[in-house]
Amino acid sequence: MTALTLSTAAAPGLRADAIVIGVAKGAKGPIVAPGAEAVDKAYDGRLAGILDTLGASGAEGEVTKLPAPAGFKAPLVLAVGLGQEPEKDAGFDPEALRKAAGAAARTLTGAKKAAFALPVTDAADIGATGEGVVLGAYSFDAYKRGDDAKAKNAKAPLAEAVLLGGKPRDAAHKAALLRAATVGEELNRARDLINMPPNDLDPEAFAALAQTAAKEHGIKVQVLDEKALAKGGYGGILGVGSGSASAPRLVKLSYTSSKAKKNLAFVGKGITYDSGGISLKPAGHNETMKCDMSGAAAVFAAVVAAARLGLEVNVTGWLALAENMPSGSATRPGDVLRMYSGKTVEVLNTDAEGRLVLADALWAASAEKPDAIVDVATLTGAMMLALGSRTFGIMANDDAFRSALHEAAEEVGEPAWPMPLPEHLRKGMDSSVADIANMGERMGGGLVAGLFLREFVGEGITWAHLDIAGPAFNEGGPFGYTPKGGTGTAVRTLVRLAELTASGDLG
Ligand code: BES
Ligand code: MN
Ligand code: ZN
After folding, report:
1. 108 with 75: CB under 8 angstroms?
2. Over the stretch 414-458, which tens digit does the pLDDT of each residue have?
3. pLDDT band for position 151 (50/70/90)?
4. What contacts 472, CB < 8 A, 6 or more positions away?
5. Which one of 70, 161, 172, 356 has the fewest CB atoms closer than 10 angstroms to its CB?
6. Contact, 166 vs 462, CB < 8 A?
7. Count of the separate structural domains present in the chain
Protein backbone atom coordinates (compact mmCIF):
# COMPACT_ATOMS: atom_id res chain seq x y z
CA MET A 1 0.00 0.00 0.00
CA THR A 2 1.06 3.56 -0.63
CA ALA A 3 2.63 5.01 2.53
CA LEU A 4 1.14 8.37 3.55
CA THR A 5 3.00 11.14 5.38
CA LEU A 6 2.43 14.82 6.14
CA SER A 7 5.16 17.37 5.53
CA THR A 8 5.66 21.14 5.73
CA ALA A 9 8.57 20.99 3.29
CA ALA A 10 8.57 23.41 0.36
CA ALA A 11 7.95 21.86 -3.04
CA PRO A 12 11.22 22.96 -4.73
CA GLY A 13 13.51 21.08 -2.34
CA LEU A 14 11.52 17.86 -2.26
CA ARG A 15 13.23 14.77 -3.57
CA ALA A 16 10.41 12.99 -5.36
CA ASP A 17 9.45 11.61 -8.74
CA ALA A 18 6.72 14.20 -9.13
CA ILE A 19 4.98 17.17 -7.52
CA VAL A 20 1.20 16.95 -7.89
CA ILE A 21 -0.71 20.23 -8.08
CA GLY A 22 -4.36 21.08 -8.63
CA VAL A 23 -5.85 22.97 -11.55
CA ALA A 24 -9.45 24.15 -11.56
CA LYS A 25 -11.79 25.25 -14.28
CA GLY A 26 -12.15 29.03 -14.06
CA ALA A 27 -14.40 31.38 -15.98
CA LYS A 28 -11.57 32.34 -18.36
CA GLY A 29 -9.51 29.17 -18.46
CA PRO A 30 -7.50 27.01 -16.10
CA ILE A 31 -6.67 28.31 -12.62
CA VAL A 32 -3.83 27.07 -10.45
CA ALA A 33 -5.39 25.84 -7.20
CA PRO A 34 -4.14 27.03 -3.80
CA GLY A 35 -1.33 24.91 -2.41
CA ALA A 36 0.79 25.25 -5.56
CA GLU A 37 1.94 28.85 -5.00
CA ALA A 38 5.61 27.91 -4.72
CA VAL A 39 5.39 25.90 -7.92
CA ASP A 40 3.66 28.72 -9.80
CA LYS A 41 6.27 31.19 -8.53
CA ALA A 42 9.07 29.00 -9.88
CA TYR A 43 7.42 29.23 -13.31
CA ASP A 44 7.45 33.03 -12.82
CA GLY A 45 3.70 33.05 -12.17
CA ARG A 46 3.02 31.78 -15.69
CA LEU A 47 1.72 28.33 -14.71
CA ALA A 48 -1.94 28.99 -15.55
CA GLY A 49 -0.90 30.27 -18.97
CA ILE A 50 1.42 27.31 -19.57
CA LEU A 51 -1.38 24.90 -18.66
CA ASP A 52 -3.76 26.73 -20.98
CA THR A 53 -1.20 26.46 -23.80
CA LEU A 54 -0.89 22.74 -23.14
CA GLY A 55 -4.64 22.39 -23.52
CA ALA A 56 -5.44 21.84 -19.86
CA SER A 57 -8.85 23.11 -18.75
CA GLY A 58 -9.01 21.96 -15.13
CA ALA A 59 -11.75 19.45 -15.87
CA GLU A 60 -12.21 16.64 -13.40
CA GLY A 61 -9.95 13.68 -14.12
CA GLU A 62 -7.66 15.60 -16.48
CA VAL A 63 -3.94 14.97 -15.94
CA THR A 64 -1.26 17.18 -17.51
CA LYS A 65 2.45 16.49 -17.20
CA LEU A 66 5.04 19.22 -17.45
CA PRO A 67 8.76 19.42 -16.74
CA ALA A 68 9.46 20.87 -13.30
CA PRO A 69 10.90 24.41 -13.24
CA ALA A 70 14.62 24.95 -12.89
CA GLY A 71 15.93 24.38 -9.38
CA PHE A 72 13.36 21.74 -8.44
CA LYS A 73 14.66 18.47 -7.08
CA ALA A 74 11.68 16.62 -8.60
CA PRO A 75 11.75 16.27 -12.40
CA LEU A 76 8.02 16.35 -13.03
CA VAL A 77 4.97 18.45 -12.20
CA LEU A 78 1.67 16.69 -12.54
CA ALA A 79 -1.32 19.03 -12.82
CA VAL A 80 -4.56 17.26 -12.01
CA GLY A 81 -8.02 18.62 -12.75
CA LEU A 82 -10.30 19.52 -9.82
CA GLY A 83 -13.33 20.52 -11.87
CA GLN A 84 -15.18 23.81 -11.50
CA GLU A 85 -13.51 26.46 -9.36
CA PRO A 86 -15.56 26.79 -6.13
CA GLU A 87 -17.64 29.90 -5.36
CA LYS A 88 -15.89 32.73 -3.54
CA ASP A 89 -15.16 31.83 0.11
CA ALA A 90 -16.03 28.18 -0.50
CA GLY A 91 -13.27 25.59 -0.51
CA PHE A 92 -12.85 22.63 -2.81
CA ASP A 93 -15.18 19.75 -2.11
CA PRO A 94 -13.37 16.85 -0.35
CA GLU A 95 -14.70 14.52 -3.05
CA ALA A 96 -13.03 16.66 -5.75
CA LEU A 97 -9.74 16.31 -3.85
CA ARG A 98 -10.30 12.56 -3.43
CA LYS A 99 -10.90 12.09 -7.15
CA ALA A 100 -7.99 14.29 -8.20
CA ALA A 101 -5.59 12.59 -5.80
CA GLY A 102 -6.83 9.24 -7.10
CA ALA A 103 -6.32 10.14 -10.75
CA ALA A 104 -2.81 11.42 -9.97
CA ALA A 105 -1.87 8.32 -7.97
CA ARG A 106 -3.08 6.11 -10.80
CA THR A 107 -0.98 8.05 -13.33
CA LEU A 108 2.04 7.64 -11.05
CA THR A 109 1.96 3.85 -11.11
CA GLY A 110 5.56 2.62 -11.04
CA ALA A 111 6.86 5.77 -9.28
CA LYS A 112 8.51 5.63 -5.87
CA LYS A 113 7.54 8.92 -4.30
CA ALA A 114 5.28 11.86 -5.07
CA ALA A 115 4.43 15.05 -3.20
CA PHE A 116 0.83 16.27 -3.28
CA ALA A 117 0.45 20.06 -3.17
CA LEU A 118 -3.35 20.15 -3.43
CA PRO A 119 -5.70 22.77 -1.93
CA VAL A 120 -6.17 21.22 1.52
CA THR A 121 -7.48 23.42 4.32
CA ASP A 122 -8.54 21.09 7.13
CA ALA A 123 -8.45 17.53 8.46
CA ALA A 124 -11.34 16.44 6.24
CA ASP A 125 -9.40 17.57 3.14
CA ILE A 126 -6.31 15.70 4.29
CA GLY A 127 -8.35 12.56 4.88
CA ALA A 128 -9.98 12.81 1.47
CA THR A 129 -6.65 13.39 -0.29
CA GLY A 130 -5.03 10.49 1.53
CA GLU A 131 -7.94 8.20 0.75
CA GLY A 132 -7.84 9.23 -2.90
CA VAL A 133 -4.14 8.40 -3.11
CA VAL A 134 -4.44 4.96 -1.50
CA LEU A 135 -7.53 4.03 -3.51
CA GLY A 136 -6.27 5.48 -6.81
CA ALA A 137 -2.93 3.72 -6.51
CA TYR A 138 -4.67 0.34 -6.29
CA SER A 139 -3.94 -2.26 -8.91
CA PHE A 140 -4.72 -5.93 -9.11
CA ASP A 141 -2.00 -7.93 -10.80
CA ALA A 142 -1.61 -10.98 -8.60
CA TYR A 143 -2.47 -13.06 -11.64
CA LYS A 144 -0.08 -11.36 -14.07
CA ARG A 145 3.28 -12.90 -14.68
CA GLY A 146 5.72 -10.49 -13.07
CA ASP A 147 8.72 -12.41 -14.39
CA ASP A 148 7.84 -11.77 -18.00
CA ALA A 149 10.01 -8.79 -18.85
CA LYS A 150 8.26 -8.28 -22.17
CA ALA A 151 4.77 -8.21 -20.69
CA LYS A 152 5.58 -5.27 -18.37
CA ASN A 153 1.93 -4.95 -17.52
CA ALA A 154 2.35 -5.25 -13.79
CA LYS A 155 4.02 -2.10 -12.45
CA ALA A 156 4.07 -1.48 -8.72
CA PRO A 157 1.69 1.12 -7.27
CA LEU A 158 3.05 4.47 -6.10
CA ALA A 159 5.09 3.59 -3.01
CA GLU A 160 5.03 6.83 -1.03
CA ALA A 161 2.91 9.96 -0.98
CA VAL A 162 3.91 13.09 0.94
CA LEU A 163 0.96 15.38 1.59
CA LEU A 164 1.82 19.06 1.77
CA GLY A 165 -0.35 21.76 3.29
CA GLY A 166 -1.31 19.84 6.43
CA LYS A 167 0.24 20.11 9.89
CA PRO A 168 2.28 17.00 10.77
CA ARG A 169 1.93 17.73 14.52
CA ASP A 170 -1.79 18.50 14.53
CA ALA A 171 -3.69 15.66 16.22
CA ALA A 172 -6.75 16.03 13.96
CA HIS A 173 -4.60 16.04 10.82
CA LYS A 174 -2.66 12.97 11.95
CA ALA A 175 -5.87 11.15 12.88
CA ALA A 176 -7.43 11.95 9.50
CA LEU A 177 -4.39 10.57 7.70
CA LEU A 178 -4.36 7.40 9.78
CA ARG A 179 -8.08 6.91 9.18
CA ALA A 180 -7.56 7.36 5.43
CA ALA A 181 -4.75 4.80 5.39
CA THR A 182 -6.79 2.29 7.39
CA VAL A 183 -10.04 2.64 5.48
CA GLY A 184 -8.14 2.73 2.18
CA GLU A 185 -6.20 -0.41 2.96
CA GLU A 186 -9.30 -2.34 4.05
CA LEU A 187 -11.28 -1.11 1.06
CA ASN A 188 -8.46 -2.32 -1.19
CA ARG A 189 -8.66 -5.67 0.58
CA ALA A 190 -12.34 -5.85 -0.41
CA ARG A 191 -11.34 -5.05 -4.01
CA ASP A 192 -8.77 -7.86 -3.97
CA LEU A 193 -11.44 -10.33 -2.83
CA ILE A 194 -13.86 -9.16 -5.53
CA ASN A 195 -11.20 -9.37 -8.24
CA MET A 196 -10.00 -12.80 -7.19
CA PRO A 197 -11.16 -15.37 -9.76
CA PRO A 198 -13.91 -17.69 -8.55
CA ASN A 199 -11.80 -20.82 -9.05
CA ASP A 200 -9.59 -19.52 -6.25
CA LEU A 201 -12.19 -17.81 -4.08
CA ASP A 202 -14.92 -20.28 -3.21
CA PRO A 203 -16.96 -20.04 0.01
CA GLU A 204 -14.46 -22.10 1.98
CA ALA A 205 -11.48 -20.02 0.81
CA PHE A 206 -13.33 -16.76 1.56
CA ALA A 207 -14.18 -18.01 5.05
CA ALA A 208 -10.56 -19.01 5.66
CA LEU A 209 -9.26 -15.59 4.54
CA ALA A 210 -11.82 -13.86 6.76
CA GLN A 211 -10.77 -16.03 9.67
CA THR A 212 -7.08 -15.21 9.31
CA ALA A 213 -7.55 -11.47 8.86
CA ALA A 214 -10.12 -11.15 11.62
CA LYS A 215 -7.93 -12.91 14.16
CA GLU A 216 -5.11 -10.49 13.37
CA HIS A 217 -7.32 -7.62 14.46
CA GLY A 218 -8.93 -9.13 17.54
CA ILE A 219 -12.23 -9.91 15.87
CA LYS A 220 -14.08 -13.03 16.96
CA VAL A 221 -14.92 -15.38 14.09
CA GLN A 222 -17.41 -18.20 13.85
CA VAL A 223 -17.77 -20.23 10.66
CA LEU A 224 -20.76 -22.47 10.04
CA ASP A 225 -19.86 -25.13 7.49
CA GLU A 226 -22.36 -27.20 5.51
CA LYS A 227 -22.88 -29.62 8.40
CA ALA A 228 -23.52 -26.86 10.92
CA LEU A 229 -25.81 -25.11 8.43
CA ALA A 230 -27.83 -28.30 7.97
CA LYS A 231 -28.05 -28.82 11.71
CA GLY A 232 -29.17 -25.23 12.21
CA GLY A 233 -31.78 -25.36 9.46
CA TYR A 234 -30.29 -22.74 7.13
CA GLY A 235 -32.35 -23.86 4.14
CA GLY A 236 -31.74 -20.71 2.10
CA ILE A 237 -27.94 -20.81 2.15
CA LEU A 238 -27.89 -24.59 1.69
CA GLY A 239 -30.41 -24.48 -1.13
CA VAL A 240 -28.34 -21.97 -3.10
CA GLY A 241 -25.10 -23.84 -2.44
CA SER A 242 -26.38 -27.31 -3.20
CA GLY A 243 -25.46 -27.29 -6.88
CA SER A 244 -21.82 -26.47 -6.30
CA ALA A 245 -18.86 -28.73 -5.62
CA SER A 246 -17.78 -26.06 -3.11
CA ALA A 247 -19.97 -26.09 -0.01
CA PRO A 248 -21.51 -22.90 1.41
CA ARG A 249 -20.52 -21.11 4.62
CA LEU A 250 -22.00 -18.59 7.01
CA VAL A 251 -19.30 -16.48 8.65
CA LYS A 252 -19.98 -14.36 11.71
CA LEU A 253 -17.42 -11.68 12.60
CA SER A 254 -17.84 -9.96 15.96
CA TYR A 255 -16.00 -6.77 16.81
CA THR A 256 -16.77 -5.57 20.31
CA SER A 257 -15.70 -2.40 22.08
CA SER A 258 -15.76 -2.14 25.88
CA LYS A 259 -17.11 1.40 25.45
CA ALA A 260 -19.92 0.47 23.05
CA LYS A 261 -23.46 1.65 23.70
CA LYS A 262 -24.93 0.39 20.43
CA ASN A 263 -24.86 -2.78 18.34
CA LEU A 264 -24.79 -2.80 14.55
CA ALA A 265 -25.14 -5.81 12.27
CA PHE A 266 -23.88 -5.81 8.68
CA VAL A 267 -25.01 -8.61 6.39
CA GLY A 268 -23.28 -9.28 3.05
CA LYS A 269 -24.32 -11.27 0.01
CA GLY A 270 -21.40 -13.54 -0.76
CA ILE A 271 -22.12 -15.49 -3.92
CA THR A 272 -18.57 -16.31 -5.00
CA TYR A 273 -19.90 -17.04 -8.48
CA ASP A 274 -23.42 -16.60 -9.81
CA SER A 275 -24.05 -18.75 -12.88
CA GLY A 276 -27.78 -18.44 -12.27
CA GLY A 277 -28.01 -22.11 -11.32
CA ILE A 278 -30.57 -24.23 -13.20
CA SER A 279 -32.09 -20.92 -14.39
CA LEU A 280 -28.73 -20.48 -16.07
CA LYS A 281 -27.64 -17.03 -17.17
CA PRO A 282 -27.02 -16.71 -20.90
CA ALA A 283 -23.51 -16.04 -22.21
CA GLY A 284 -22.79 -12.34 -21.93
CA HIS A 285 -24.33 -12.18 -18.45
CA ASN A 286 -21.98 -14.32 -16.43
CA GLU A 287 -18.46 -13.09 -17.28
CA THR A 288 -18.36 -10.68 -14.34
CA MET A 289 -20.36 -12.77 -11.88
CA LYS A 290 -17.36 -13.32 -9.64
CA CYS A 291 -18.36 -9.88 -8.34
CA ASP A 292 -21.48 -11.31 -6.72
CA MET A 293 -19.72 -11.48 -3.35
CA SER A 294 -19.04 -7.73 -3.31
CA GLY A 295 -21.55 -7.22 -0.47
CA ALA A 296 -19.78 -9.76 1.73
CA ALA A 297 -16.40 -8.25 0.82
CA ALA A 298 -17.66 -4.78 1.82
CA VAL A 299 -19.05 -6.05 5.12
CA PHE A 300 -15.83 -7.87 5.90
CA ALA A 301 -13.69 -4.82 5.12
CA ALA A 302 -15.96 -2.53 7.14
CA VAL A 303 -15.84 -4.74 10.25
CA VAL A 304 -12.04 -4.96 10.08
CA ALA A 305 -11.79 -1.19 9.55
CA ALA A 306 -14.09 -0.56 12.54
CA ALA A 307 -11.85 -2.78 14.67
CA ARG A 308 -8.63 -1.16 13.49
CA LEU A 309 -10.07 2.29 14.14
CA GLY A 310 -11.21 1.15 17.60
CA LEU A 311 -14.70 2.57 17.10
CA GLU A 312 -16.83 2.59 20.25
CA VAL A 313 -19.63 0.49 18.85
CA ASN A 314 -20.16 -3.26 18.53
CA VAL A 315 -20.24 -4.41 14.93
CA THR A 316 -21.21 -7.89 13.83
CA GLY A 317 -20.62 -8.90 10.23
CA TRP A 318 -22.45 -11.77 8.60
CA LEU A 319 -21.05 -13.19 5.36
CA ALA A 320 -23.54 -15.42 3.54
CA LEU A 321 -21.24 -17.41 1.25
CA ALA A 322 -22.31 -19.83 -1.47
CA GLU A 323 -21.62 -20.61 -5.11
CA ASN A 324 -24.68 -20.71 -7.38
CA MET A 325 -24.13 -23.52 -9.89
CA PRO A 326 -26.28 -25.89 -11.95
CA SER A 327 -25.82 -29.62 -11.38
CA GLY A 328 -27.73 -32.78 -10.51
CA SER A 329 -27.81 -31.71 -6.89
CA ALA A 330 -28.79 -28.10 -7.58
CA THR A 331 -32.02 -26.52 -6.39
CA ARG A 332 -34.67 -26.64 -9.16
CA PRO A 333 -37.17 -24.02 -10.13
CA GLY A 334 -40.22 -25.41 -8.32
CA ASP A 335 -38.38 -26.57 -5.21
CA VAL A 336 -39.55 -25.32 -1.84
CA LEU A 337 -36.93 -24.38 0.74
CA ARG A 338 -37.50 -24.21 4.48
CA MET A 339 -35.61 -21.14 5.60
CA TYR A 340 -33.78 -20.52 8.88
CA SER A 341 -36.71 -18.36 10.00
CA GLY A 342 -39.10 -21.27 9.48
CA LYS A 343 -40.81 -19.64 6.49
CA THR A 344 -41.03 -21.64 3.30
CA VAL A 345 -39.95 -20.26 -0.07
CA GLU A 346 -40.93 -21.54 -3.48
CA VAL A 347 -37.93 -21.09 -5.74
CA LEU A 348 -39.31 -19.99 -9.09
CA ASN A 349 -36.00 -18.78 -10.45
CA THR A 350 -32.68 -20.10 -9.15
CA ASP A 351 -31.01 -16.93 -10.38
CA ALA A 352 -32.80 -14.97 -7.64
CA GLU A 353 -30.41 -16.60 -5.17
CA GLY A 354 -29.05 -13.59 -3.32
CA ARG A 355 -32.26 -12.97 -1.42
CA LEU A 356 -32.27 -16.62 -0.30
CA VAL A 357 -28.84 -16.55 1.33
CA LEU A 358 -29.50 -13.08 2.75
CA ALA A 359 -32.82 -14.18 4.24
CA ASP A 360 -31.07 -16.74 6.45
CA ALA A 361 -28.31 -14.33 7.44
CA LEU A 362 -30.81 -11.53 8.20
CA TRP A 363 -32.77 -13.86 10.46
CA ALA A 364 -29.59 -14.98 12.21
CA ALA A 365 -28.56 -11.33 12.68
CA SER A 366 -32.04 -10.45 13.96
CA ALA A 367 -31.84 -13.06 16.73
CA GLU A 368 -29.25 -10.88 18.47
CA LYS A 369 -31.57 -7.87 18.46
CA PRO A 370 -29.07 -5.29 17.18
CA ASP A 371 -30.01 -1.60 17.11
CA ALA A 372 -29.88 -1.73 13.32
CA ILE A 373 -29.11 -4.11 10.47
CA VAL A 374 -27.71 -3.06 7.10
CA ASP A 375 -27.41 -5.61 4.32
CA VAL A 376 -25.25 -5.05 1.26
CA ALA A 377 -25.82 -7.02 -1.94
CA THR A 378 -25.29 -7.10 -5.69
CA LEU A 379 -28.92 -8.09 -5.74
CA THR A 380 -30.69 -7.12 -8.94
CA GLY A 381 -30.05 -6.13 -12.52
CA ALA A 382 -33.18 -4.01 -12.12
CA MET A 383 -31.35 -1.68 -9.73
CA MET A 384 -28.68 -1.13 -12.40
CA LEU A 385 -31.38 -0.29 -14.91
CA ALA A 386 -32.88 2.18 -12.45
CA LEU A 387 -29.77 3.93 -11.14
CA GLY A 388 -26.99 3.15 -13.60
CA SER A 389 -23.59 1.72 -12.85
CA ARG A 390 -22.30 4.26 -10.32
CA THR A 391 -25.14 4.68 -7.81
CA PHE A 392 -26.48 2.18 -5.30
CA GLY A 393 -30.06 2.03 -4.08
CA ILE A 394 -31.05 2.32 -0.42
CA MET A 395 -34.26 0.72 0.85
CA ALA A 396 -35.31 0.54 4.50
CA ASN A 397 -38.14 -0.17 6.89
CA ASP A 398 -37.46 3.20 8.55
CA ASP A 399 -37.44 6.52 6.68
CA ALA A 400 -35.09 8.28 9.10
CA PHE A 401 -32.56 5.46 8.95
CA ARG A 402 -32.68 5.42 5.15
CA SER A 403 -32.05 9.18 5.08
CA ALA A 404 -29.20 8.86 7.57
CA LEU A 405 -27.53 6.23 5.41
CA HIS A 406 -28.02 8.32 2.31
CA GLU A 407 -26.41 11.28 4.06
CA ALA A 408 -23.51 9.14 5.25
CA ALA A 409 -22.98 7.85 1.71
CA GLU A 410 -22.99 11.39 0.28
CA GLU A 411 -20.54 12.53 2.90
CA VAL A 412 -17.97 9.84 2.06
CA GLY A 413 -18.35 10.24 -1.71
CA GLU A 414 -20.40 7.14 -2.52
CA PRO A 415 -23.27 8.01 -4.86
CA ALA A 416 -26.50 6.49 -3.53
CA TRP A 417 -30.22 7.10 -3.84
CA PRO A 418 -33.28 6.24 -1.70
CA MET A 419 -35.72 3.74 -3.20
CA PRO A 420 -39.21 2.84 -1.93
CA LEU A 421 -40.68 -0.49 -0.83
CA PRO A 422 -44.20 -0.22 -2.34
CA GLU A 423 -46.57 -2.53 -0.46
CA HIS A 424 -48.57 -3.47 -3.57
CA LEU A 425 -45.55 -5.33 -5.00
CA ARG A 426 -45.67 -7.89 -2.19
CA LYS A 427 -48.60 -9.85 -3.60
CA GLY A 428 -46.64 -10.65 -6.77
CA MET A 429 -44.57 -12.99 -4.60
CA ASP A 430 -47.59 -14.92 -3.32
CA SER A 431 -47.01 -18.64 -3.86
CA SER A 432 -49.65 -21.33 -4.22
CA VAL A 433 -47.51 -23.87 -2.35
CA ALA A 434 -45.25 -21.92 0.04
CA ASP A 435 -45.30 -18.83 2.27
CA ILE A 436 -43.63 -16.75 -0.41
CA ALA A 437 -41.96 -17.14 -3.82
CA ASN A 438 -38.47 -15.85 -4.55
CA MET A 439 -39.71 -13.85 -7.54
CA GLY A 440 -42.47 -11.39 -8.20
CA GLU A 441 -43.32 -8.76 -10.78
CA ARG A 442 -40.54 -8.00 -13.23
CA MET A 443 -41.26 -4.28 -13.11
CA GLY A 444 -39.59 -2.79 -10.06
CA GLY A 445 -37.51 -5.96 -9.58
CA GLY A 446 -35.09 -4.22 -7.21
CA LEU A 447 -37.91 -3.16 -4.93
CA VAL A 448 -39.51 -6.62 -5.08
CA ALA A 449 -36.21 -8.07 -3.86
CA GLY A 450 -36.16 -5.51 -1.04
CA LEU A 451 -39.69 -6.50 -0.02
CA PHE A 452 -38.64 -10.16 0.02
CA LEU A 453 -35.72 -9.39 2.36
CA ARG A 454 -37.96 -7.36 4.68
CA GLU A 455 -39.90 -10.55 5.47
CA PHE A 456 -36.81 -12.00 7.10
CA VAL A 457 -35.95 -9.07 9.38
CA GLY A 458 -36.96 -9.61 12.98
CA GLU A 459 -39.98 -7.75 14.33
CA GLY A 460 -39.20 -4.18 15.39
CA ILE A 461 -35.60 -4.13 14.11
CA THR A 462 -34.43 -1.12 12.11
CA TRP A 463 -33.11 -2.37 8.78
CA ALA A 464 -31.74 -1.02 5.52
CA HIS A 465 -30.79 -2.72 2.29
CA LEU A 466 -28.10 -1.45 -0.10
CA ASP A 467 -28.44 -2.85 -3.63
CA ILE A 468 -24.95 -2.29 -5.04
CA ALA A 469 -25.38 -4.29 -8.28
CA GLY A 470 -24.48 -1.19 -10.33
CA PRO A 471 -21.39 0.29 -8.66
CA ALA A 472 -19.82 -2.90 -7.22
CA PHE A 473 -17.86 -3.74 -10.36
CA ASN A 474 -16.52 -1.20 -12.84
CA GLU A 475 -16.61 -2.68 -16.33
CA GLY A 476 -15.51 0.58 -17.92
CA GLY A 477 -12.18 2.36 -17.66
CA PRO A 478 -10.80 3.69 -14.37
CA PHE A 479 -11.94 7.13 -13.19
CA GLY A 480 -10.94 9.26 -10.20
CA TYR A 481 -9.97 6.82 -7.46
CA THR A 482 -12.10 4.00 -8.92
CA PRO A 483 -10.21 1.25 -10.76
CA LYS A 484 -11.49 -1.17 -13.32
CA GLY A 485 -13.03 -4.25 -11.68
CA GLY A 486 -14.03 -4.49 -8.02
CA THR A 487 -14.64 -1.02 -6.54
CA GLY A 488 -15.25 -1.69 -2.85
CA THR A 489 -18.42 0.40 -2.89
CA ALA A 490 -20.36 0.62 0.40
CA VAL A 491 -17.29 0.05 2.60
CA ARG A 492 -16.95 3.75 3.35
CA THR A 493 -20.68 4.20 3.96
CA LEU A 494 -20.67 1.31 6.46
CA VAL A 495 -17.60 2.66 8.25
CA ARG A 496 -19.18 6.12 8.41
CA LEU A 497 -22.41 4.63 9.79
CA ALA A 498 -20.40 2.83 12.48
CA GLU A 499 -18.59 6.08 13.36
CA LEU A 500 -21.83 8.06 13.58
CA THR A 501 -23.44 5.33 15.66
CA ALA A 502 -20.42 5.26 18.00
CA SER A 503 -20.45 9.01 18.53
CA GLY A 504 -24.22 9.15 18.95
CA ASP A 505 -24.52 11.52 15.98
CA LEU A 506 -26.82 9.35 13.92
CA GLY A 507 -30.12 11.11 13.19
N1 BES B 1 -26.27 -11.30 -9.06
C2 BES B 1 -27.45 -11.01 -9.82
C3 BES B 1 -27.70 -9.51 -10.00
C4 BES B 1 -26.65 -8.75 -10.75
C5 BES B 1 -26.81 -8.53 -12.11
C6 BES B 1 -25.56 -8.22 -10.12
C7 BES B 1 -25.87 -7.82 -12.81
C8 BES B 1 -24.60 -7.50 -10.82
C9 BES B 1 -24.76 -7.30 -12.17
C10 BES B 1 -28.67 -11.61 -9.13
O11 BES B 1 -28.44 -12.78 -8.43
C12 BES B 1 -29.68 -11.95 -10.19
O13 BES B 1 -29.39 -12.77 -11.00
N14 BES B 1 -30.83 -11.30 -10.13
C15 BES B 1 -31.87 -11.52 -11.08
C16 BES B 1 -33.17 -11.65 -10.31
C17 BES B 1 -34.32 -12.12 -11.14
C18 BES B 1 -34.11 -13.54 -11.60
C19 BES B 1 -35.58 -12.00 -10.32
C20 BES B 1 -31.89 -10.32 -12.02
O21 BES B 1 -31.68 -9.20 -11.56
O22 BES B 1 -32.08 -10.54 -13.21
MN1 MN C 1 -28.52 -14.50 -9.67
ZN1 ZN D 1 -26.54 -13.04 -7.70
Report:
1. no
2. 999 999 999 999 999 999 999 999 999 999 999 999 999 999 999
3. low
4. 194, 291, 294, 295, 378, 486, 487, 489
5. 70
6. no
7. 2
- Geometric angle at alpha carbon 94, from 91 and 97, rounded to 5°: 95
Do 157 and 214 fall into the same domain? no
Q: CB of 380 closer than 6 A to ligand 1?
A: yes
Q: What does the DSSP 8-state code read for residue 277?
A: T
Could you give the CA distance from residue 110 to residue 116 in angstroms, rounded to a whole number?
16
Which residues are identified as catalytic? 281, 355
Q: How confident is the model at residue 146 (pLDDT cuts 50, 70, 90)?
A: low
153 has a pLDDT exceeding 80: no
Mutating to test ligand 1, I would choose from 346, 351, 355 the residue with most ligand atoms within 8 A of its C-beta, which is: 351
Ligand 1 mean position to 231 CA, how many Å? Answer: 29
Residue located nearest, by CA, to atom 13 of ligand 1: 351
Percent with pLDDT over 90 in the chain: 96
Q: Is residue 178 part of a domain?
A: no
- pTM here is 0.98
Over range 284-306, report the average pLDDT: 98
Task: Report how far ligand 2's centroid is from the alpha carbon of 224 (Å).
Answer: 23
Residue 8 forms part of a structural domain: yes
Whether 217 and 105 map to the same domain: the answer is no
Mark whether 155 and 282 lie in a shared domain.
no
